[in-house]
Amino acid sequence: MHIPESVYRSEAFPDPATPVFVAEIACIMCATVVGTAIDERWPPVLTVLIELDGSRVLRRVELDRLRCPQCGGNTEATEVTPRLLRRDHVDWRLERPQVGRPPKWLAALRAAGRPYDRTA
Ligand SMILES: [Zn+2]
């Protein structure tokens, strides 16, 4: 299973390398492919991130609402593949400072022993 492109655009897995499971989700009634799910553990619990077939965005869906759009049937993972999700490029939207953590440039200043001067 390939990792959907939308996974790289989402903020769900910000780490440079995240072991994930990629699964094709299909209807157990009519075999329609519902989408490609991705999660850090498999089987997922309560919700799962999925790129629905024909969609280009990753959504978090409650498992019991993950139904076949054709017949409303229940779904199952037909193929589950462990993958290593790598972010080779730096996505600056994901590089925003985390709450409670100083920005990298400030941490570097502090590490260098130079106090940050707010009036500078
Ligand atoms: Zn179906």
Q: What do you see in this structure?
A:
The protein has 120 residues and is mainly β. The protein has one domain. 11% of the residues lie in helices and 34% in strands. The chain has helices at residues 5-9, 104-111, and strands at 17-27, 33-39, 47-52, 58-62, 75-86. Strands 4-3-2-1-5 form a five-stranded antiparallel β-sheet. Strand 1 (17-27) and strand 2 form a beta hairpin. The termini are far apart. The model has no long low-confidence stretch (mean pLDDT 87). It binds zinc ion (ZN). The site of zinc ion has 8 residues, from loops.
Task: Describe the structure concisely.
The chain has 120 residues and is mostly beta strands. It has helices at residues 5-9, 104-111, and strands at 17-27, 33-39, 47-52, 58-62, 75-86.
List the helices and strands and how they pair.
Layout lengths: L4 H5 L7 E11 L5 E7 L7 E6 L5 E5 L12 E12 L17 H8 L9
Antiparallel strand pairs: 1-2, 1-5, 2-3, 3-4
The protein binds zinc ion.
Largest sheet: 5 strands, antiparallel
Please give the order of strands in the largest beta sheet: 4-3-2-1-5
**How many independent structural domains?**
1
Total strands: the figure is 5
Give the helix tally. Answer: 2
Rg (C-alpha, Å) = 19 Å
Overall pLDDT: 87
Please write the string of helix (H) and strand (E) elements: HEEEEEH
Distance between the termini: 52 Å
Ligand catalogue? zinc ion
Shape: elongated
Helix content range: 10-25%
Structural class: mainly beta
Proportion of residues in β-strands: 25-35%
Indicate the low-confidence ranges by residue numbers: none
